[in-house]
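User: structure tokens for this one?
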Amino acid sequence: VQLVQSGVELRNPGTSVQVSCKASGYTFTSYYIEWVRQAPGQGLEWMGSFDPGDGVSKYAQKFQGRVTFTADTSTSTAYVELSSLRSEDTAVYYCAAREGPSSEDVGRYDSWGRGAQVTVFS
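Assistant:
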């Protein structure tokens, strides 16, 4: 299982950002894609999960209304879009794959991407 993420993104407050996560080495629809972020000096924060098999998303309450998970099964690529960006959204955004039910427990993930740095600045 390999996950390759997009690179550095710089955004102004109030705008949106989309991070991609291209999967390979397994059947894309067989694993959940979990999205996690880590702000500077902070721990890992679960944002939610996406099931490429049926297109169903589960969002952490904190991000409800601002985050959207999607995927293109033809390219085995998952996406997270975060809108109404603020400086507190500056973080490294990770995708991870989990074979099995979605879980907020980051220790249960089978594989991780290297992360995409998102910086929000005025």
